[in-house]
């Protein structure tokens, strides 16, 4: 079961898909790493677009101060278009953790034909 703990820790605290790669489930590991990178990129892009739209639409003439950055971040995080990719990212991360532990069990030999 020690292999399951290592796989879980890799997928939970380092990056989703690394536990699957540690378990030598290459196809699923590569899919999770690439999928998580894609969703993370969409999340960052959506966050930056929402942040810049809010700043340009409401606060543009004012200089960018720390208080203004805090207001912009709160407005960005409260927008539904930010939560959709964030929820997908958390779902992928959770799936990676659970699947890494389940995939760490003893491997069954393939049936010979």
List its traits.
113 residues; 0% strand
How would you describe the overall organization of this protein?
Helices cover 77% and strands 0% of the residues. Helix 1 (2-14) runs antiparallel to helix 5 (80-102), helix 3 packs across helix 4 (66-77) and helix 3 packs antiparallel against helix 5. It is built from five helices and no strands. The protein has one domain (2-102). It has 113 residues and is mainly alpha-helical.
Summarize the SSE layout with pairings.
Elements: H1 2-14, H2 18-22, H3 26-59, H4 66-77, H5 80-102
Summarize the structure.
Helices cover 77% and strands 0% of the residues. With 113 residues, it is mostly helical.
């Amino acid at each position: 079961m020690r292999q399951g703990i290592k796989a879980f820790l890799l997928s939970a605290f380092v990056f989703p898909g690394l536990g699957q790669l540690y378990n030598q489930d290459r196809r699923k590991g590569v899919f999770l790493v690439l999928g998580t990178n894609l969703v993370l990129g969409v999340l960052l892009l959506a966050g930056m677009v929402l942040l810049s739209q809010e700043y340009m639409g409401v606060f543009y003439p004012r200089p960018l101060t720390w208080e203004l950055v805090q207001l912009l971040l709160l407005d960005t995080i409260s927008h539904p278009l930010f939560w959709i990719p964030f929820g997908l990212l958390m779902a992928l991360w959770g799936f990676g953790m659970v699947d890494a532990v389940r995939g760490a069990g003893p491997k069954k030999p393939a049936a010979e034909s």
